[in-house]
Amino acid sequence: MTGPRYPDLIAALPETVPFVGPEVQERQKGARFRARLGANESVFGPSPFAIAAMQDEVAEVWKYADATNYDLKNALAARLRCTPENIVLGSGIDGLLGNTVRLLVEPGDAVVTSDGAYPTFNYHVAGYGGVLHKVPYRNDHEDIAALFAKAAEVDAKIVYLSNPDNPMGSWHSGAAIAAAMEDLPDGTLLVLDEAYVEFAPEGTSPDLPVDDPRLIRMRTFSKGYGMAGARLGYGFGAPRLIRAFDKIRNHFGINRPAQVGALAALQDQEWLDEVLRLVAQSKAEIARIAEANGLRALPSATNFVTVDCGADGDYARAVLAALVAQGVFVRMPFVAPQDRCIRITAGRPEDMAVLEETLPQALAEARDALKGAG
Amino acid sequence: MTGPRYPDLIAALPETVPFVGPEVQERQKGARFRARLGANESVFGPSPFAIAAMQDEVAEVWKYADATNYDLKNALAARLRCTPENIVLGSGIDGLLGNTVRLLVEPGDAVVTSDGAYPTFNYHVAGYGGVLHKVPYRNDHEDIAALFAKAAEVDAKIVYLSNPDNPMGSWHSGAAIAAAMEDLPDGTLLVLDEAYVEFAPEGTSPDLPVDDPRLIRMRTFSKGYGMAGARLGYGFGAPRLIRAFDKIRNHFGINRPAQVGALAALQDQEWLDEVLRLVAQSKAEIARIAEANGLRALPSATNFVTVDCGADGDYARAVLAALVAQGVFVRMPFVAPQDRCIRITAGRPEDMAVLEETLPQALAEARDALKGAG
């Protein structure tokens, strides 16, 4: 009596999760976090209209959602000045990244990303047997020229660029990306992850035709729109590529209230503006607290601030551990030299108060811990 | 300026959706359906406690859901008398079927199913390059002996069996499945789709150890629990297989209110009992209406009744088209000789009234249409 037979690719994959969620940490600690500032969620929540729309639609949850996402696609198309045929909905950008990799990457195919960029993208590439080529950050920015040069060198199927960048909060102008496109090799798809674009300055998204076959842009209702738990992201690009998702996606995979809520969220520009205002306020507050403790806040075009702890990765990891122990959920970059930083999501005044209270103690503990180890 | 390069497998796939949803048909017709009886949704909806729980949790939708599904897995484990390590959650059975195929099937690998069984399973197999071998139904039942013999003959990685069966509503006893297991070839995984098991007689699920490495069972909150639009299904089986899903699944892919709602739904056995009572009532009513119109209702262990229209597939398709034109959303089997039937989901008394009103006219139209064509 034997079990199933796994292909070599699957057998060799680790049973990992790219991120450990805060609930898991809370169960391990036996205590709730006092401030949830680690996953770049929007503690300000979605538009009250989106909340009301979702609550109403719960009564209709016995129905499968419209698999063609007709209403939401049309609303997005009007907003993006394109057609519904340019848009694909998915289970967050995570789900769409998985679909994109599946559409293009066969075992052994080359894929390019920045070393220390989004781990879930890397997870999908590994899951389909792609070979990742990683390019270092340059001055805490993703290095567009180096990414595209590497793509040409290794004949990449995909090059991944997040703009603004997670985890560093840095960004390039849309003009810089548009100018770089002539160096994108033929046959390489640029996956431009714009999860944080609502927080970024005007002009951060490149002014390129939506039908340009060389790129797909991805956005989400998880960040600015405050609906991370709804699981709704979208990609937009040339119709031929968008149609290809219909070959493989889980057509009836989207939650019905989420779809209705996203439509309402999209129509409440006032709420988004308010969130942007609150996020800007909180980012200033994070910077103030960081600087009061002798740390440096990096410029950010996102809803988080990456804070340079001023030493190496071991020190930042000790700071992070001490914050987590004191009930502050935060995360940090994985790769040197970016791992000298911790990453703090914008929060409410009460979240900032917890940060202000706990950070001096966390820094002291980290210094002591490293002295003890040294 | 060229687009991305698709692997041959992807390039050859059709841009299809396994099912056309009722919303698409409504837009095409320019009118809403009067009765929604085509997708085996539960018009009776979820437990009021589940509705309340989801509405409350909408306020928390800014948070990603717990990617380990801790609370829900523990509740399911208690119910199924197994451990959380035996359980995987997914975006409906559809999502889990996709994951299962991905875990096991490489291009060219053999997979066995019944001819006319669940199209979405076939969609996933095609999507990963598997080769489908189809076994005919036998007396409107899936033919377990023939399925397992075919699996041995073609050295299948997976054999798919739904019990109770969709679209025929027929079922086998759990004892019959357990007895057949000794003929399941080594190295073949039995995917036992129990989406409708809540509606089936005691003993329909085989009494086999949950750690048996030869099978995975799949169940859902979409049918008996009335939460199709929430997108939540689960698989249970041996821990090694369950862990393998962690290698590839979209860990943060589940909607947060859906997860909380499912937990509440699971704890309201009274509501499920009430739904079973209402479904049984409606099934009797469908049978009565069918027989009053000279049709035969097949026995069903699900929340739908498959009705034999008494002639060939062309006739049943004409009946279905006439019902749809009159505002009754129903579906039918795709493959002969099962396509002599239409499939009608249990509904409320008002849905049954619409069926009773429209069926005679639909049958008359179908007879006329075929006379005209003949």
Q: Can you describe what's shown?
A:
The structure is a homodimer of 374-residue chains. The first copy, chain A, has 374 residues and is an alpha/beta fold. The first copy, chain A, has two domains: 8-45 and 270-373, Aspartate Aminotransferase, domain 1; 48-268, Type I PLP-dependent aspartate aminotransferase-like (Major domain) (Aspartate Aminotransferase, domain 2, 3-Layer(aba) Sandwich). Chain A is built from 13 helices and twelve strands. In chain A, the strands form three sheets. In chain A, strands 2-8-7-6-5-3-4 form a seven-stranded mixed β-sheet, sandwiched between helices. In chain A, a hairpin with a 6-residue loop joins strand 9 (296-297) and strand 10 (304-308). The termini of chain A are far apart. The mean pLDDT of chain A is 97. Chains A and B meet through helix 2, helix 3, helix 5, helix 9 and helix 10 of A and helix 2, helix 3, helix 5, helix 9 and helix 10 of B. Chains A, B: It is an enzyme of class 2 (transferase).
